[in-house]
Amino acid sequence: MFDDRSPIYHQIAESIKNDILSGELGADEQVMSTNQYAAYYRINPATAAKGFQQLVDEGVLYKRRGIGMFVSADAHDALLAQRRERFFADIVEPMVAEARVIGIPLDDIVAHIQTLKGRESA
Fold first, then answer.
1. 55-68 pLDDT, tens per residue?
2. Closest CA to 41 of 5, 4, 9, 6
3. What is the pTM assigned to this prediction?
4. Do residues 2 and 48 touch, judged by C-beta distance below 8 A?
5. What does the angle CA 21 – CA 71 – CA 75 come to, to the nearest 5 degrees?
6. Average of pLDDT values for 46-61?
7. Which CATH number fits domain 8-73: 1.50.10.20, 3.30.300.30, 1.10.10.10, 3.40.50.2300?
8. Element housing 13 (H / E)
9. What distance, in Å, lies between the first and last C-alpha atoms of the chain?
């Protein structure tokens, strides 16, 4: 599950975010405890706790004292908005900049995307 591209605690946070976006974890649903998570993935509990704390700090998870951690009610919508924003900043804007450099009109890009959309519905 974990790779060397980023710290494990960050990968934990991203994995839980992906579970929320995919619907695997819903609003107000309890997530594994940090100790359960650490045991399941055979990692240091402090590393798991750091990933969970990042999600609490971001408002994705919340703690219920003595019970555990739960998905925030608005986590899905907030994460979706963040991902969409990041998609345009990281993918679309550089693509448009490259298209300008190599002389591809934006209308051609839109037409190509429409063609892909047509293939998808067929």
1. 999 999 999 999 99
2. 9
3. 0.81
4. no
5. 50
6. 96
7. 1.10.10.10
8. helix 8-22
9. 35
